[in-house]
Amino acid sequence: MLKIDSLHQYYGGSHILRGLSFEAKVGEVTCLLGRNGVGKTTLLRCLMGLIPSREGSVSWEGHAITQLKPHQRVHAGIAYVPQGREIFPRLTVEENLLMGLSRFSAKEAKSVPEFIYELFPVLLQMKHRRGGDLSGGQQQQLAIGRALASRPRLLILDEPTEGIQPSVIKEIGVVISKLAARGDMAILLVEQFYDFAAELADQYLVMSRGEIVQQGRGENMEAEGVRGLVTI
Ligand SMILES: Nc1ncnc2c1ncn2[C@@H]1O[C@H](COP(=O)(O)OP(=O)(O)OP(=O)(O)O)[C@@H](O)[C@H]1O
Ligand SMILES: [Mg+2]
Q1: Taking residues 118-144, what's their average pLDDT?
Q2: Residue 141: which H helix or E strand, with range?
Q3: Whose alpha carbon is nearest atom 9 of ligand 1?
Q4: CATH fold of 1-77+152-232, please?
Q5: Mean pLDDT value of segment 108-134
Q6: Which of 13, 82, 134, 192 is the most exposed place for a label (fewest CB within 10 A)?
Q7: Which atom from ligand 1 is nearest to the alpha carbon of 11?
Q8: What does the pLDDT look like over 29-62, one tens digit per residue?
Q9: pTM over 0.70
Q10: What are the percentages of helix, strand and coil residues in the chain, rounded to 5?
């Protein structure tokens, strides 16, 4: 389980995360919703150790990880698909995927695991193309594939549907459902696309101004008025 307790973070004088607390369980998709600029990406960057948290704690599988460096968090089984994807545009699809294997020994990191290409057949077809030549949707699939290559037990995704065509959004939804159904992974999905989140969420969280202001079970999102809280 991922457990976040009273997390605070600042950019200069701006207080961005304001005593934020929640849990995300293995075997569940936890969807974090919130409007632009409420601090969703800041939270995820704190969870990965990319920016420090000023106060509060993060624990994963019973161990405090608050002081760990990003690569140590990857070793602890955490993978992150950043907003905007951040693939390596000049490397091939295959080389991008191999980058996701950096936590393994050289022998284990020699070839792309078959399950990635099974989840995303398009990546197999395009394995020799440069990442930068892929469409936005294909790049998102590549970024997810690269994160999965590290065989995470916690997968963190930041707005994977942003700027992506509906058919690819559907494919990404299917992959997230398949991963959730395996039951051995906690998935933390940040989204602004309400319908996508509502379809996948076991648990939902609504964030506003650096705090969790509402939470509940995914099946109750409509009844509990979440759509109105997160859509304009
Ligand atoms: N590097 C930075 N330096 C200073 N302020 C920042 C920095 N990054 C983000 N901010 C500010 O922190 C606040 C939270 O930003 P953040 O990117 O976490 O929001 P978000 O919820 O992910 O938004 P979006 O939905 O647009 O992705 C915003 O007011 C933003 O302008
Ligand atoms: Mg963001």
Answers
A1: 96
A2: helix 136-149
A3: 42
A4: Rossmann fold (3.40.50)
A5: 94
A6: 13
A7: 4
A8: 999 999 999 999 999 999 999 998 889 999 999 9
A9: yes
A10: 35, 30, 40
